[in-house]
Amino acid sequence: MSDPERVMLLSVHPRFATAILAGTKRVEVRRQRVAAPPGTPVLLYATAPTMAIVGIARIASVQVASPGEVWSASRTSAGISRREYDEYMSGATRASGLCLEEPIAFDSPVPLAALRTAGAFHPPQSYRYLTGEDLRKVAAAAPGIGEALPGVRVGSVMPWNH
């Protein structure tokens, strides 16, 4: 898969997945450096108790800086309180703010159990890039995914290129 076709799988708590898909949370913060170019598609995996891929968004930009700088730039769009942010970032020296745009909620989330029927599938603790095989598993687990993602083909999840 070439870089423009890389797809990120991002694990988020269900409340954050809901807020991202509603457009009220536009920045997802991480304790480590995230290097992803603008335009990277991001499949949103909602963790327990949901345990499903619930939608997709696209990275508009990524800010990598100190936790204080990332908070200053993203506090109004991170969807968390300063206290939650400080607890999450405790001990971190670098932080990333992933600015997300164009969220699309799937009509039918893709449950982890369905993803695993096609073989071993492991959601990440934080994020990872999906292989072509992983994308085939997602497509196999969600035959109707093309309706939510116009123009989707195995190996590329780019719903914005109609």
Short descriptors:
single chain; 162 residues; alpha+beta; 6 strands
Strand fraction equals 25-35%
Q: Give the C-alpha Rg.
A: 15 Å
Which structural class best describes the helix and strand composition?
alpha+beta
Order of helices and strands: EHEEEHHEHEHH
| pLDDT averaged residue by residue | 86
Strand order in the sheet with the most strands:
2-5-4-3-1-6
Identify low-pLDDT runs: 148-152, 154-162
| Record field, number of beta strands | 6
Descriptive report:
The structure is a single chain. With 162 residues, the chain is α+β, with helices and mostly antiparallel strands. 28% of the residues lie in helices and 30% in strands. The chain is built from six helices and six strands; from the N terminus they run βαβββααβαβαα. It has helices spanning 14-22, 67-74, 82-89, 112-117, 132-141, 145-148, and strands at residues 8-12, 27-30, 41-46, 52-65, 95-111, 127-129. The chain has a six-stranded mixed beta sheet. β3 and β4 (52-65) form a beta hairpin. The longest helix is centred in the last third of the chain and has 10 residues, at 132-141. 34% of the residues are buried.
